[in-house]
Structures are given as structure tokens and as C-alpha cells.
């Protein structure tokens, strides 16, 4: 169960991005997968990962920043 929980954020991202693309395709919109930015789809996945991770807010932020590798640039972007 724990291994499946760790993959939940990527499933949220793929589900959101592909789901909206398929929805807009079903509506008949041209370039359906370009209607929603991947950045918009990544936000719910980040929120999901933030909620799943057990620990203090500082631990969560440090793990997030370590995960994206370059802490100086990601701190500036956030």
C-alpha cells in the first residue's frame, strides 16, 4: 500500500493532464491537449505530495527543494 501511495502524485498529474485533454477532445476543441498547461496540472500533484508526506512544514519544504535538485534556483522561483 505504501508504494502505491508514493506514486499517487504522478497519477494525479497524468490523470489531470490526460483527463482534461480527453475532455476537450470529446467537446471537439482543436488542439485539445494544449488547452490546459502542464503547469496547471502539476499544482494538484504537488499539493497531493505535500499532504502525503509526513513531517513538519520545514521537513516537507526541504524534501521538496532537495527533490528538484538546485535549492537556490527553486527557492527563488517559489
Structure, explained:
- It contains 5 helices and no strands.
- By secondary structure, it is mainly α.
- Helix 2 (8-27) runs antiparallel to helix 3.
- The radius of gyration is 15 Å and the shape is elongated.
- The termini are far apart.
- The model has no long low-confidence stretch (mean pLDDT 85).
Secondary-structure map:
Blueprint lengths: L1 H5 L1 H20 L10 H15 L4 H11 L3 H7 L1
Helix pairs in contact: 2-3
Task: Write a concise synopsis of the structure shown.
The protein is mainly α and 78 residues long. It contains 5 helices and no strands.
Q: Which percent range fits the helix content? A: over 70%
The portion of residues forming beta strands comes to under 5%
Average pLDDT metric: 85
Q: Output the number of helix runs.
A: 5
> How would a crystallographer describe the biggest sheet?
none
Distance between the termini: 31 Å
Order of SSEs, N→C? HHHHH
Amino acid at each position: 500500500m505504501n508504494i502505491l501511495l508514493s506514486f499517487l502524485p504522478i497519477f494525479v498529474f497524468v490523470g489531470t493532464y490526460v483527463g482534461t485533454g480527453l475532455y476537450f477532445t470529446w467537446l471537439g476543441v482543436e488542439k485539445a491537449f494544449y488547452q490546459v498547461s502542464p503547469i496547471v496540472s502539476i499544482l494538484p500533484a504537488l499539493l497531493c505530495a505535500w499532504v502525503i508526506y509526513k513531517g513538519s512544514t520545514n521537513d516537507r519544504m526541504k524534501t521538496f527543494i532537495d527533490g528538484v535538485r538546485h535549492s537556490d534556483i527553486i527557492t527563488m522561483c517559489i
